[in-house]
Design goal:
8-stranded mixed sheet, alpha/beta, 7-stranded mixed sheet, 11% strand, 796 residues, 21 strands
């Protein structure tokens, strides 16, 4: 090999030729030509490859692909000429060695461009490096071969009846293991052994391999419980919420504005709980609807009159969790979600192998879908920790995927097979879900007196920030209102007054929250147009001393007759939570004198309502459950007592009938046909406690929501587990001709025509909302705290 500089190389080459006989010279020439031919071939093969593609790659910084091939061609041409000269010179017997060397030297000089030797050195060095790498690869291959030879027979799909899906999963892995980078993350490399190791140790489709080291994995020590302490300084929370979106800026302003009230509420609740020990939870809050991945249609509309209800609720949820003293992580992007959960990189095909790093996860339907994409199979394992913020609610018939598909309840939402109490609503639409709510600003005594002194008796404010809400015949009843009252609007506009707003309306444009509060404190009437449904604004107006006037819907709106509710996972068909007005909660839970619900199409009824407004004096009013203290109380109870991961109450289990003779578990209520849990019987530990339960039988065609409310009670789906038995029918003095058990969202129930007693087979379908015209339902009811419908009297 030529490894010396240019001049010394010529001298050494000449010395070599002096000592070799012609035949030897010919052999050496052929050998060097063969080496160059190999280098030419390798150069042509690998020079086009990218850096890092192969261990054989020629270093691009030394020699480019085209240049290297050109140099190698020149070397080949030179050697061919030299070989011809050597052949002709060897045939001349009368030539001296000195003459032969001179002839060859002149031939070499003709084929020696500038830098040729240096280039030859670079190629030679690369060839040397390639030889080392080839040797390493061969050694590794031989070592791996020896390992494979030792376990070749051990990497065949085991035939184990306990793992019936192993073979099909192995076939799937062979074909699709490159479809998600997470498989390579767990060591899958395309070999049979890596497939089986993954399917037996990361997933659970194949049996453990006997030749693997199966030392019992160390069970992670349960996190030590820490005590939660109330917080009143919101600085750290504001930093966590972040910036960059108008929605986040709105939420932070709201948190700052109400910080004082949250702090006072925390002190009052602490006294009420007598400073009892509370566990501090690790909580992830993932606001899915604000992520870029979900489209985030809300943030751009914050300053243009768009809906704010969801942001109001999320701001209050964050503040409540933080004030209660829990450890929070806040995610506003799918990337943050993936990082917080610690899921493997990829598309969510692989499960989490470690424990979930959070006790609770609050998200929404968008976030739930994103969690499914990133967690894959792990979502089923960990979904008992999830709480879904769901504005309008999800009924059991829509939540159970198989049942929804079979009976026409399938929608774009729903179908997640959660415990329905994991869905948390803005208003208490149905007791099948948990009522999360939000807060409105609470006034002190001085503020209330000031408002009452400064109310303008003939001033009305319209509930409608978008110009589109003023269309479709609104001017007719606005003309009637205008005859008696001065009308104010807060309709968004950029440069010109919206043409939809009548000229007699004084439009202030979109107002900041503080300015809107001042406007409401002066106004006597807050009037709704029928949309938006069930927002926070009417409660804020009532809290500032306004009377809320809203339209009565005839017929009531629901998922069958109104476009807005179509596709939502709730029917709103049961009479007690029909959408009978723009704001059913205000109509049913507050009512007169603070709320008037009338038919806007009836001019006389509408005018009578206006006169009633102007002659009625009301004080500012806010239901306790919508105060900061009320929300803290409710969220505290949920966090400390709701546990959907407990065996027997967990998702998907068959109904657990309380064992023993159920006839001894119930006692008849005095002066009533209902039953209560016998105080002498030690029942299982459950929340709400069984002492709050009342068992009633509904009328035909009546839901349990209605039956319980008729007795000033609330339906409690948690108690269905304890009444789903024949003995419960017997204690209610119902004679069963037959007993059946199946999946049906109105069971347990009694068929009046067939005299059949029907038990529920699927716990996820226990429903307070279900009803049927031919069935009487078994209804588990409970009492509730004054002003706090979500909690029983002994629930705190």
């Amino acid at each position: 090999m030529v490894t010396v500089p240019h001049i010394d190389g010529k001298i050494m080459f000449r010395r070599c030729l002096v000592t070799f006989k012609p035949f030897r010279i010919f052999v050496v020439g052929i050998g060097f030509f063969s080496l160059c031919f190999l280098m030419t071939s390798l150069g042509g093969q690998f020079s086009a490859k990218r850096l890092g593609d192969s261990p054989f790659t020629i270093r691009a910084e030394v020699l480019g692909g085209l240049e290297s091939r050109g140099v190698l061609r020149k070397i080949s041409d030179m050697l061919e000429v030299i070989m011809k000269r050597i052949d002709s010179l060897s045939k001349r017997d009368n030539m001296s060695d000195t003459r032969i060397l001179d002839e060859l030297s002149s031939a070499i000089d003709r084929f020696q461009p500038a830098g040729l030797i240096e280039r030859i050195q670079a190629i030679a060095q690369n060839v040397s490096n390639m030889a080392v790498k080839v040797e390493q690869i061969l050694q590794n291959s031989l070592a791996a071969g020896r390992v494979r030879d030792g376990r070749a027979n051990r990497c065949e799909a085991p035939q184990d009846p306990k793992y019936p899906d192993c073979t099909s999963k192995l076939d799937w892995m062979r074909a699709r293991w490159t479809s998600d980078p997470c498989y390579a993350f767990y060591g899958v490399d395309g070999s049979e052994c890596s497939f089986l190791i993954y399917l037996s140790e990361v997933e659970w489709f194949c049996p453990p391999l006997p030749w693997r080291n199966h030392t019992t994995p160390t069970t992670p020590k349960p996190r030590g419980k820490r005590q939660a302490a109330f917080r009143t300084d919101i600085g750290a929370l504001l930093e966590q919420v972040g910036t960059g979106k108008e929605s986040l800026i709105f939420m932070k302003r709201r948190i700052r504005r109400l910080a004082g009230q949250w702090g006072q509420a925390a002190n009052r609740l602490g006294e009420k709980l007598k400073r009892s020990w509370r566990e501090r939870k690790k909580i992830l809050v993932h606001v899915g609807f604000l992520t870029e991945e979900s489209g985030d249609v809300f943030s751009p509309k914050v300053l243009k009159g768009g809906p704010l209800g969801e942001m109001v609720q999320w701001a209050d949820i964050l503040t409540a969790l933080y004030t209660l003293g829990h450890s929070l992580k806040i995610s506003i992007s799918a990337k943050e979600l993936q990082g917080f959960l610690g899921v493997p990189p990829g598309r969510g095909s692989c499960p989490l192998t470690g424990p979930l790093p959070f006790d609770l996860i609050y998200t929404d339907y968008h976030g739930l879908q994103q969690m499914k994409q990133h967690m894959g199979l792990s979502l089923k394992k960990h979904k008992c920790h999830i709480r879904v913020i769901d504005t309008f609610g999800t009924e059991p018939a829509y939540n159970h995927e198989e049942y929804a598909m079979l009976h026409g309840y399938r929608t774009n939402w729903g179908y997640w097979n959660l415990h329905c109490k994991q869905y948390m609503t803005m208003f208490p639409h149905t007791p099948d879900n948990s009522f999360m709510g939000f807060v409105s600003e609470e006034l002190n005594g001085t503020q209330k007196e000031y408002i009452q002194r400064n109310k303008v008796n003939n001033m009305a404010v319209v509930y409608g920030k978008e110009a589109s809400m003023w269309k479709q015949g609104k001017e007719r009843f606005l003309q009637i209102l205008h005859r008696s009252m001065e009308i104010h609007g807060t309709v968004y506009y950029e440069t010109q007054r919206p043409p939809e707003v009548p000229a007699f309306v004084k439009n202030h444009g979109l107002l900041p929250q503080n300015d809107l509060q001042q406007l409401l404190r002066r106004a006597k009437l807050f009037i709704g147009f029928g949309f938006p449904y069930e927002g926070p604004a009417p409660l804020e107006a009532i809290a500032n001393g306004c009377i809320f006037l809203q339209p009565k819907f005839r017929p009531s709106h629901n998922s069958l007759n109104h476009e807005f509710f179509k596709g939502k996972p709730t029917s709103r068909e049961a009479s007690r939570f029909l959408v009978s007005s723009q704001h059913p909660y205000a109509e049913q839970y507050i009512g007169r004198p603070h709320v008037l619900t009338v038919d806007y199409n009836n001019s006389e009824e509408f005018e009578s309502a206006i006169r009633e407004v102007m002659t009625t004096k009301v004080e500012p009013y806010l239901p306790y459950e919508y105060t900061c203290e009320g929300m803290l109380e409710r969220v505290h109870a949920y966090i400390q007592h709701q546990d959907f991961c407990i065996p027997g109450v967990s998702i998907g289990n068959d109904s657990k009938v309380w064992p023993g003779n159920s006839s001894s578990h119930f006692v008849r209520l005095p002066n009533s046909s209902g039953l209560a849990w016998a105080g002498s019987v030690a029942g299982p530990s459950t929340w709400p406690p069984l002492s709050a339960m009342r068992l009633l039988l509904s009328e035909e065609g009546q839901s349990c929501v209605e039956q319980c409310q008729d007795h000033s009670l609330v339906c409690e789906p948690t108690f269905f587990h304890f009444i789903n038995s024949k003995e419960a029918f017997t204690q209610l003095q119902i004679q069963c001709d037959a007993l059946e058990s199946e999946m049906n969202h109105i069971y347990p129930a009694f068929s009046v025509s067939r005299r059949d007693c029907c038990l529920q087979k699927e716990p996820l379908l226990f429903s307070c909302a279900g009803f049927h015209s031919k069935f009487q339902r078994l209804c588990p009811c409970r009492d509730f705290r004054k002003g706090q419908v979500a909690l029983c009297r002994d629930c705190l």
